[in-house]
Amino acid sequence: MKDVLIIGGGAVGLCTAYYLHARGRRVTVLDQTTLRDGASTGNAGMIVPSHVVPLAAPGVIAKGLKWLLNPESPFFIKPRLDPALIAWLWRFRAACTNDNVARGIPVLRDLSLTSTALLDDLAASPGLGDFGLAHTGLLMVYRSEKGRKENLETADLAEAAGLDIDRLDADATLALEPAICSPQTGSVFYRQDARIDPDRFVEVLARSLQDAGVMIHTRTTVQGLEHRNGLVTAVRTNHDTFEADEIVLAAGAWTGRLAKMLGLNVPVQPAKGYSLTVETGHPLRIPLILTEEKVTVTPMPGRIRFGGTLALAGFDPSAEPRRVAPIRRQMQAYCPDLPADDVEHAPVWTGYRPCSPDGLPILGRAAPFRNLTLATGHGMMGATLAPVTGKLIAELLDGEPPSLDLHPLRPDRFSNKSKP
To answer: Which of 353, 298, 309 is closest to 331 using CA atoms?
Structure first.
């Protein structure tokens, strides 16, 4: 039985540990935080088969340039002379094509639908416990004619890919979800979407793994990766040095930094997002994405989480008040009983999504190392794709043919791309 060391204790790392342990592997997990501090816990908790169109798509750059002129826009690039960011943006620009969308849609569809089914299996597992899984569907809400056209275009792509959707006018939207407080003229309802409590998901996974004998070392920062003859031989941390037969890098947005210790270029950029969570008895049942505002509204047991923003600002933990303002406005709309001062000073969570240049995850063996596997690049779909990622990595490490095609996700797909 081979030992596996997983670097990264977020949803992806813990799901990978879960499926490897189920196959009889001895697994150790390292994480630099307490498990409650990463992007896996403060995210919107949406399970989104609806998100079949990759982030890199035609028109995204032009829209992003317009957003840069708006201080409250949901997209922001912090100006800086960072060679890694410049190279990433160059690759992203090259990937914003119809061909990339056509290739990416079936990949993301199969990954997300498989992962949603795996979440059902996890929810039914007696060893885990409740993590708030609810098959609510998702409403993409719009309020302008431009928003209507963009949503219906995306809906056509999703429906052509086999997703189950409804196109609703304003009355039908309110009939389905009467608790909507945002201005709207219609929506697209994605029936196969769901939601979880992401904080609880990480908590129950970690507890179940620890009860089963999996060692999880928190506040453990990797300081060096040693290698020899095509093998990663040791992982040095601030506490100890670890050795294992197999190493899995599942450290989210930090994966690129760790891979650089081995001389590898893994093009992942940290895309900072914000969320605010408030305890409330608001009757909202169905998660919403307010498409013009780019704000998410997710009902969870006893609370609502509001999220948004994609900032390419490196690992800057600060929360820009102007970017948070649209999120706070939605909080006030859905929680009108909250004093304005409470809304204004509600604590802001920030986290980093690991974004690849083409909008697809990066999964597979990392040449030239025979015992190193990457599991990163999930962007804003980490919660959705964590279970299927864990299952695929477990299959790969056991030498089985993967249950889904990993070729479009292979880490070396960027090696032949042109650079600036």
So the answer is: 298
Judge whether 267 and 312 are in contact, CB under 8 Å: no
Strand 231-237, strand 241-242: pairing:
antiparallel
pLDDT, tens only, 30-87:
999 887 666 667 899 999 999 999 988 888 776 766 666 566 777 778 778 889 999 9
Please state the rounded mean pLDDT for residues 361-367: 96
Residue 143 lies in domain: 3-414
Residue 92 within a domain: yes
Kindly state whether residue 134 falls inside one of the protein's structural domains. Answer: yes
Task: Examine residue 420 and state whether it is found in any structural domain, yes or no.
Answer: no
Domain count, the chain: 1
Do residues 275 and 306 lie in contact, with contact meaning Cβ atoms separated by under 8 Å?
yes
pTM for the whole structure: 0.94
Angle subtended at Cα 369 by Cα 367 and Cα 374, rounded to the nearest 5 degrees: 70
CATH number, position 310: 3.50.50.60
- Would strands 165-169 and 186-190 be described as parallel, antiparallel, or unpaired? antiparallel
pLDDT tens digit sequence for 275-310: 999 988 889 999 999 999 899 999 998 899 999 988
